[in-house]
Amino acid sequence: MPPEPGPAVLPNPRDAYPKPPFRRQEQPWPGLAGRMEPRPDHGEHSYGGNGRLAGRRALVTGGDSGMGRAAAIAYAREGADVAINYLPSEEPDAREVVALIQEAGRKAVAIPGDLRDAAFCRQMVERAVRELGGLDILVCNAARQQTRASILDVSDEDFDATMKTNLYAPFWTIKAALPHLPPGAAIIGTTSEQAYDPSPELYDYAQTKAATMNYVKSLAKQLAPKGIRVNGVAPGPIWTPLQVSGGATMEKLERFGGQTPLGRPGQPAELASIYVQLAAADAGYATGQVYGAAGGSGQP
Ligand code: NAD
Ligand code: MG
């Protein structure tokens, strides 16, 4: 008997992707993945798909870039129709995602708009439900992160914008979506290792991620009787526009991800399967959990 063929290549996670030092680069908020160097990997050329989400309907906020884009691509390749939300200035990134969803043979709905507006959050959900014919998966992933060395540098407007984007928007969005979510539906919130190991210069952002972890757990208990699961994803340092448009120092960006045990930042593609797993019916017993991917750092 010939030996079973093994995997052609078993990638070493230390060497699978670019490592620091990175080229210094800065973009105005919220940044574009298409202008990053190196370009992030969202699974465009690697994510396969096995029909795990066949016929599902998903809404992903921040679906133009980063983790949201990786989730949107993976969802489509697993057989779901996908609506993405993003800021109007992110149209170039969003167009690429829409094309990738369509190339996967699925319906794509593009819903640009600012989540800091409660009325927009409600309209976004209504449009997604109308154009997808319902909603089974809601990923509250969009966030604002700005680096400020001191709390004295965090203006009232800054603080308000971070709270509105990271906490009020999921509150408004989940409230609007809930009447449409059937038993079996999944809500996923993107939190962060910042929830339990906050950086001193991310005072406002980090506390929203702790709150996200908390709402995942309370809502999981609250919605379990309806058969709706709620889980969180807690990334470590991932190579996304958030990191090059949030005012991080160039020294920090140059060394980005190098402090993790794996010695490099993660790529959005490396989290795609977590978003899929949490949405899939075969994870039916998982609710109120937070799943990390942080290169060996960021343990709660
Ligand atoms: P990203 O910049 O690709 O995604 C963030 C998205 O948020 C943007 O694309 C934008 O569309 C959206 N957004 C921000 N403000 C908005 C607003 N007012 N209205 C509508 N959309 C708005 O970066 P990312 O790193 O992929 O971020 C996705 C999630 O991952 C966020 O919740 C972030 O906090 C979290 N996260 C990122 C890292 C990291 O190192 N990159 C680490 C931990 C957690
Ligand atoms: Mg973006």
Automatic annotation (TrEMBL):
PROSITE patterns: ADH_SHORT. Residues 1-53 are annotated as: Disordered. This is NAD(P)-dependent oxidoreductase. It comes from the Bacteria. It comes from Paracraurococcus ruber. Keywords: Oxidoreductase. PANTHER family: NADPH-DEPENDENT ALDEHYDE REDUCTASE 1, CHLOROPLASTIC (PTHR48107:SF16), NADPH-DEPENDENT ALDEHYDE REDUCTASE-LIKE PROTEIN, CHLOROPLASTIC-RELATED (PTHR48107). Residues 1-10 have a biased composition (Pro residues). Residues 36-45 have a biased composition (Basic and acidic residues). Belongs to the short-chain dehydrogenases/reductases (SDR) family. SUPFAM superfamilies: NAD(P)-binding Rossmann-fold domains. InterPro entries: NAD(P)-bd_dom_sf, Sc_DH/Rdtase_CS, SDR_fam.
